[in-house]
Amino acid sequence: MTFPATRLRRLRTTPALRSMIRETQLSPADFIYPLFVVHGRDVHKGIPSMPGVFHQSIDQLAAEARSVAALGIPAVILFGLPAEKDDIGGENFAADGIVQQAIRAIKDATPELIVMTDVCMCEYTDHGHCGIVRNGHIVNDETLEILQKVVTSHAEAGSDVVAPSGMMDGMVGAIRKALDGDGFSDVSILSYAVKYASSFYGPFRDAAQSPPQFGDRHSYQMDPANAREAIREARLDVEEGADMLMVKPATAYLDIVRRVRDSFDLPLAAYNVSGEYSMVKAAAANGWIDERKVTLEILTGIKRAGADMILTYHAKDAAAWLRERA
Ligand code: PBG
Predict the structure, then answer these.
(1) Dist CA 272 CA 301 (whole Å)
(2) Spatial separation of the C-alpha atoms in residues 184 and 178, rounded to whole Å
(3) Any bridge partners for residue 78, and if so which?
(4) Nearest CA to ligand 1 atom 8
(5) What is the best residue among 204, 216, 314 to mutate for testing ligand 1's pocket, by most ligand atoms within 8 Å of CB?
(6) 4: cis peptide before it, omega within 30°?
(7) 171 lines ligand 1 (CB under 6 A)
(8) Which segments of the chain have a pLDDT < 50?
(9) Which residues, listed in sequence order, are joined to residue 34 by a DSSP beta bridge?
């Protein structure tokens, strides 16, 4: 049937009709909220490159976790800034490391909130790379041994989900083996399976103080031009035992989100990264866009592309807006 018998505007006539036929429903339950945890007391310090995002000390986390949970957001993901950096990132797997303390503080305050932990070396190493460096190269297999120690320490502290983000080959299998060997077979793995070497991470590297001190991340993170390779990355992680997959960044990679969604049955997350966030904040601060509408449109687009979960710095604002709208 064609025009004039068919008129697509008919179902757009009223808000009720539009709502009834809406294909994608965005909800606070879709969000995972990233937190940056630092040493010290009473620290709640804005990160200049990411307005509305803070460095917070352990004593701030109970209140933060309660406010996240009260908004209906089911999960946080933790990033830690260590007291000192060294060549292997020792604090990364210390029993009283910053993230290990944060896990305990949040689990005490809000046992129902899912605690996820980013598992990577770049915040902890003095060279800022996501693996062990030898003769200017990032060596893969020795890095896996460190990641195994990291996940065990996170699991011991009470992490529910570990999320390896360093793009080392074999990381998921190595982590699964370590967790199972140490009695943590219930801890899940959300793999940053498809992570591109993206310039959209710029503001995060300020937030996590993790820029590489030499070279770049192109020898381990993916070339933004590649899509088929994303399927190979995801397939390997599925075979190694990933419970959930992630595509990162989100908005410039929605085709990848869709391809991974269509190729695998695992729950899929997309990371709406720092640069995507800060661009919206900057444009909104200039009065060039409507922050609320643009944010909800972006998050809806990510979900429509196939993401079940969205890691986003907008989570608290977006959750509050969605609750007002409901
Ligand atoms: C650590 C890590 C990064 C991000 C998440 N985990 C930085 C990087 O890979 O350089 C980026 C998150 C963001 O930009 O919001 N490897």
Answers:
(1) 11
(2) 8
(3) 35, 117
(4) 201
(5) 204
(6) yes
(7) no
(8) none
(9) 77
| Burial of 268: CB neighbours in 10 Å, binned 0-12, 13-18, 19+ | buried
Q: What is residue 117's predicted lDDT score, i.e. its pLDDT?
A: 98
Q: Is 248 a catalytic residue?
A: yes
Token pair in block for residue 48:
């200049």
pTM above 0.90, yes or no: yes
Q: What is the pLDDT of residue 24?
A: 98
Q: Which two structure tokens, joined as six digits, stand for 81? A: 């800034």
pLDDT value, residue 210:
87
| Maximum alpha-carbon separation in the chain | 71
Q: Please tell me the predicted confidence (pLDDT) of residue 98.
A: 98
66-98-168-228 Cα dihedral, nearest 10 degrees: 20
Any ligand 1 atom below 6 A from CB of 153: no
Nearest by Cα to 112 from 29, 1, 202, 4: 29
Q: Which of 194, 203, 188 is nearest to 275 (CA)?
A: 203
Measured over the CA atoms of residue 122, residue 125, residue 129 and residue 132, the dihedral's sign is: negative
CA-to-CA separations, 79 to 99, 117, 210, 222, 249, in angstroms, rounded: 7, 7, 11, 22, 17
The Cα 10–Cα 248 span in angstroms is 38
Encode pLDDT of 20-77 as tens digits: 999 999 999 999 999 999 999 999 999 999 999 999 999 999 999 999 999 999 999 9
Structural domains in the chain, CATH included, are 23-245 (3.20.20.70)
- DSSP-assigned letter for residue 270: E
3-state secondary structure 77-94: EEEECCCCCECCCHHHHC
- Provide the residue count of the chain: 326
